[in-house]
Amino acid sequence: MIKTKKWLDRYFLGEKPKIEELDIFLNGTSFEKIVWELLKRIPYGEVTTYKELAINVANKLGREKMSARAVGGAVGHNPISIIIPCHRVVGTNGSLTGYAGGIDKKVKLLEFENVDMGKLYIPKQGV
Prior knowledge:
This protein is mainly alpha-helical.
């Protein structure tokens, strides 16, 4: 617990600590764990899309394709959302969607990581 607190302190100081520094044991389905492992690989200050994640999951499972919606469900069940950076996943069209902590926090985390927000947007409610 102390190690995790120090990791988070360093993150919020802008030090970019590596996820591998922590001993992480997550409870989830095998599918969720595959998605979460891929989330860990998204570099600090960069984003990927649900579609790109779905393609990577399909490749890992030896399938031709995978539903981005299914991947989004697994992303949404990530129990440690800053450490396993689900805030770095956006819609294919640049929409900032799908963050359990709230879109405002997703925006703040991406801005904190100096992500280029020029092509990203908050979708209108109900769209």
